[in-house]
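Re: [help] complex structure
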Amino acid sequence: MNADALRGHMDALLLSVLEREPLHGYAIIEALRARSGGALDVPTGTVYPALRRLERAGLLAGEWASDGGRKRRTYRLTDAGREALAGERSAWRSFTTAIGSVLDPLR
Amino acid sequence: MNADALRGHMDALLLSVLEREPLHGYAIIEALRARSGGALDVPTGTVYPALRRLERAGLLAGEWASDGGRKRRTYRLTDAGREALAGERSAWRSFTTAIGSVLDPLR
DNA sequence: GCCTACATATAGACAGCCTACATATAGACT
DNA sequence: AGTCTATATGTAGGCTGTCTATATGTAGGC
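Output below.
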């Protein structure tokens, strides 16, 4: 997976994976890998700053928790995050339609 | 259309639009707009540098021509460009499948 | 003369994803 | 005890490609 291709779609991925249940960063990375069948292997240096950014934007709410000795920062979708996710989904459809109509010779 | 979303897909778009016939930059922009039903309106400051980049990479070959007093630089796909286009198409399918599998709740 | 469409090009800003590094706990194996 | 792997979070700095803004010039309509 080319790095640049992800540009601008990271937010949608993070919001989407948090739709059903709150997760912490590491679990999010695993969920992305699992859901994509291994195609998406996003480095920590991408995810953690992105989560912070989304939290600052009010789309996520983060909270520290402890499981044994390990500290985890668990993120959940805010209401604004849920709205943003709907927008991202819509944007994704427009995006694939637009690029697809150029790339796909039969259309 | 969000600017960042295009990242890493510009090459595929440009190669694809040049697949059938050589075109000059301005015509490429119009072709992208037409094929996408107006969704893709790529600024000149994006296209011209990108064409140069693809030419340096050996995927396109550019040639100056004149139509009346107007100078045009017409680009055509090289063999390497045709191969690259096939790779871009394949990458695009992988990409949409991967992202789609995360974004689409029914899958 | 002025405006729009056609046509190309560059400089500099900006954003976000990456690599690499730093830190720390838990558990398995030797 | 020491090592290794998996778990878990985080930052600094680099890279690169898209954008905005600007510049230049021709052709044709009004």
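Chain B is about 55% helix and 15% strand.
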